[in-house]
Amino acid sequence: MENPAKTDSSGFFAVVRRITAAWAILGGVVLILVVSVNMFSVIGGLFASPFPGDFELTQMGIAISVFAFLPYCQVTGANVTADIFTSAASARTIAFLTFLGAVIALLFSGILLWRMFYGMLDQKEFDYTTAILSIPQWLAYVPILISLALLALAAVATLLTEAETMRSGGDHV
């Protein structure tokens, strides 16, 4: 049986799951736009009119997309795991390992949020822009920072859920 906190449609975990799902969908839209720009550039290149700045847009768009998927992967348990090592483990052991992974995700997101915030401020202060389209580079940091904040929120939701599973003895997994 799955943990009730993960299936309850009104609890904190469910709210975090809905928010991260919506954010991941936006990341998917950005990814589709990146693919469209690249398709247009390749097709346009056949007719001597490629899309200017396609590399810049791809670089920024892929970074934004990848970070947008991280919170959803955390909250749904879609991160890469080595199930071969836990196939015979108890529900409590799996909950502990998931809890430990959530602690690492929380630390990881906190450190990256802190450092990337200052990176964004530096990009803005020194007015760095892309070479062809002159897009301010700090703009790409904004959705990435939101993604990292959502990753921290997703890690907290996972921590609470798995702590409850460990406390209950793993009966709810």
Helix content: over 70%
What is the first-to-last residue Cα distance? Answer: 5 Å
The class by helix and strand makeup works out as mainly alpha
Unreliable spans are none
H/E element sequence: HHHHHH
Structure overview:
- With 173 residues, the protein is mainly α.
- The chain has one domain (4-77, 89-167).
- The chain is built from six helices and no strands.
- The termini are close together.
- The model has no long low-confidence stretch (mean pLDDT 91).
Write the layout of secondary structure elements.
Layout: H1 4-7, H2 12-46, H3 54-76, H4 83-86, H5 91-125, H6 138-167
Give a nutshell description of this structure.
This protein is mostly helical and about 170 residues long. Helix content is about 75%, strand content about 0%. The chain has one domain.
Q: Which short descriptors sum up this protein?
A:
mainly alpha; elongated; 173 residues
